Amino acid sequence: MQEEQEKIYLYPTPLRIWHWLHAFAIVTLIVTGAEIRFPEYVQLLGNYKASVRVHNAAGIMVAFTFVMWFIYYAFWKRNLFRIYIPSIEDIRHGMIRQALFYGFKFFRGDPNPHHVTPENKFNALQKTAYMAVMFVFVPLVVITGVLLLNVAPLRDMVLAVGGLNFLMGLHWVLACIFLAFLITHLYLSTLGSTPWAHFIPIWTGWEEVENPPHEET
User: Fold this and answer.
1) Distance of CA 158 to the CA centre of its chain
2) Which domains does the chain have, with CATH numbers?
3) How does pLDDT run across 114-147, given as a tens digit for each residue?
């Protein structure tokens, strides 16, 4: 028995550019948000006004990259829901199978139950997490950010959604969710054949995958 390795082109150039722009914007939002929220403890940019300006610019970039992501998958590739929405099989069996792999089987050296293809990039847990992030949390952080950026001209809308304190609280909760997702995302990305195996493809586009073992003749 032997296992063969092959490389598949998993992440086209537009997607890699989007990923790093979006990641940079999200990390910038988290860091500057922390400085705005806790100026006495976090002082990376030197002053409060600079943090606010950079935070607002990063928020605009997040909104822009979200639109680019949606256009790419919905209108260019036309596979948005197939890539990001869990299937019935994912819900019934895939989530449990993948959770067992991440929590236990990986440490025994068992193979990943999910086999990556260009049309099936994400396992059941990844689909669920990305669906929540891209369809719920990113839109919410953009909407709340726009309202907080324009409180006076959008006063009626601010009041309609619960007022300024509610918006600030929701925006803060969303920031905590993004931070938790980022930490989890980075950790799970290390669970490949090597700690860097899942990081290389997002730079090069090519991922090395294992073919099912077969008998030598």
Assistant:
1) 28
2) 5-210 (1.20.950.20)
3) 989 888 999 999 999 999 999 999 999 999 999 9
